[in-house]
Design goal:
5 strands; 2 domains; elongated; 417 residues; five-stranded mixed beta sheet
Length: 417
Amino acid sequence: MIAYYIKSLTLIFGDTELAIRLGAIILVTLTSILIYNIGKELFGKKAGLLALIIFNLIPTFLAGSIFLVPQQPLILFWALSMFIFIKIIRSGNKHLWYLLGLGVGLGLLSDYVMLLFFPAVGLYLLLNQNLRFWWKKAEPYLAAILSFIIFSPVIIWNIRNGFTPLFYWSGKMGATPNYLQNILSFVSLEMLLYTPVVFILVVFLIIVLFREKDQNHLLLGCFCAPVFLAFSLISPLIMVGGHWPATAYLPAIVYLGQTKNKWLIYLTLFFALFVNIAGMAYYLFLYPIPKAMAGQELNINHKLPTYINKVTPQEGKTFYFANNLGLAGLAEFHGKVKVFLAPGRLKQFDLWGKPNLQKGDNLVYFALNESELYDKLIPLFSQVKKETTPQIFTKDADVPSKTLIFICRDFKGGTLP
């Protein structure tokens, strides 16, 4: 979904950074409208408005308005599907199940986390006695089939490629983990990114789930539980990304919008504003910019194609490599060249195509935080030159200060590091 979305944006607005930033704003705006309507549908206009304000000030979702990642369309289609489901249980309109199947299918194309929408719906239909009749109707099952038909390109791709994502993530969990550190990191990061109040509300909604009598609160708890519990269970085994369980917090935000305890809202807004202001102050004023790049932050990336053209040898064929996924994306987007990773570095790059260097070929290698590559490249080429002056800028992962570029001429043979 994120690939289709970015392709659509660049076709309309051009292959520019503005197109990507605008794309993130569009998704967050649409999700905000849905959050308002969910709150309004369950608790009234005031609750919907408060939920909308809280949603847009939560650090993760505020940052999401400028960063375009796969979780963005996931959050949109999760909120859309949740809103459609509320309409179904409120109206009893069986035809809306097919619209729900469409929404869930698009969510599945966005992220595997959307699979947890099924147990959320099933749990609510099980705990709400007045809605158990849906288990005997055909429409929910046909909706599920429709969603998996939409999801089928991903299923087919996985079958053809040996379920690569499954083995990728199981491999990460198979490493020797620090259980206590991982759990503490998960809890502290979630509290930081979603505020302690919203985090505790998610836990509260899950704890009271099986004795909750208010059907609206029960609904919100059912949509918190599968996602939050799933990531909580794997958190001892793997470092969970802060934005991965984002959909679990949407119901808690809606719940907070209707609470009569105003101090909870004030505390949430205070903490969210504090984190947002501190984060923005750091990135705007305190981020350590290399002296060689001072004053060039806004335009140095635009000069990357000129730099690449300058250092690319005139004789022979030249390939462009990187040792890091993010750095490869930056070099390809701004440098306007095809960038590879050495075979075995990252599975998805191997699937996208492995370069075949021949004797006499050249290489421009972008390396993040791996200066020892220089010694590994010297035996493989007739000449290796190290460029230490910063050529790429982004306020992430120390790219400006820890990126080296190796210009390698005349490949002699061997395995690229």
